[in-house]
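Example 3.2
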Amino acid sequence: MLTFLGIIIGISCTLLSSDNHSHQKEQNTKESYSLQWYTWEAAMQAMEADKRNGKKPKKIFIDIYTDWCGWCKKMEMETFQQPQVAKYLAEHFYPVKLNAEQRADIIFNQQTFKYIAQGNRGYHELAAALLDGKMSYPTVVFLNDKYELMQRIPGYLDVPTFNCIIHYLAEEKYVNTPWADYHAGCSK
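Structure, written as tokens:
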């Protein structure tokens, strides 16, 4: 009986150890694809450096969020941290996080964008400019390498939808393929 219990305990410990090892491997895989976010200024510097060095600059992806927004947090945890999404964003975009209520000034294109106090909360002028005054969170914004608006998409985006969008824009499928046709093909 004692030997039987020893075998069961030994098997259980081995299984627990291998479960912990596979869980650790899974965590390491996720960590290896964790997205490194740029500040607005750092993304602009990276883009300009790529241009100066003769490299084709990537497009800019901006996640406009607020600290109090539940859907923003859900999108951060469920969409942006998904390894294939994080890896693709890093390869094809300068990913920027922009708090729509941040108080620090941002200088862009020889203009200073400031925080505007309004009631209990306020907004940042750059977020308002990127959102065309429609302050909705989360909203993702895509700019090309000339800082021109490609797309502005408000609301929570799940992984399949977001993945389809970033491929459509990064690979410039919009040039020859209407979104409805491309999206129908993504869903299959």
